[in-house]
UniProtKB/TrEMBL annotation:
Residues 1-168 form the BPL/LPL catalytic domain. NCBIfam families: birA_ligase, PRK08330.1. Keywords: ATP-binding, Ligase, Nucleotide-binding. SUPFAM superfamilies: C-terminal domain of transcriptional repressors (SSF50037), Class II aaRS and biotin synthetases (SSF55681). The lineage of its organism: Archaea, Methanobacteriati, Methanobacteriota, Thermococci, Thermococcales. This is Biotin--[acetyl-CoA-carboxylase] ligase.
Amino acid sequence: MEWKIIRLDEVDSTNEYAKGIAPSSPEGTVVVAKRQTAGKGRKGRFWASPEGGLWVSVILKPNRSDPRLVFVGALAVVDALADFGIRGWIKWPNDVWVGGKKIAGILTEGKAGKFVVMGIGLNVNNEIPSDLRETATSMRAILGKRLELNEVTNRVLDHLGRWYKIFQRNPLKVIEAVKERTILINREVKVIHSDGEISGTAVDILEDGSLLIDTGEGKVRVVYGDVSIRPIRYG
């Protein structure tokens, strides 16, 4: 895909900016900001976005609305991390972890049948606040050196374009790739969702992108929720 990149020094949210221009912008328009003052995560949560991180939103115009599109962003980040020698894992549905800590999040928003804005927040060179260092990390913290942010951006976009093409042809190939890169399968998890919580063993990610959990009393399909897992060792 050919990208048209809009670079901003500061913005409240790249996703909000992208949603505002999406109706009149071509697919492949990318909004990149040095910093966000009101970055967003899932459920409207605040996402710290100081200078040094990758804060980017991509305007996509797929043929149909599909919640599995968020996996395209997660796969792009995992593959970009691998280019720099970092092993990343997808934590269903929209986070990327390294060594048990969050390094990236993906958020998809849009207007059904019109456009999708995919926001990607990746900790690159930005300093992780002291109160988050037990749960979050950055590429700089892992590698012990600063990275060229434009190079990281280009790697993410290259992989995003590749996975988006695969997704358009056959979404099930994306699901298969996610299952190979997820940290959840065969792990004990707890999922908190709007109707309560479910605990058990994550046994599969189904074709529709939902998580299948074996509670011990039966298998439950979870479409959306916040997942916590028991501490595990990473390869």
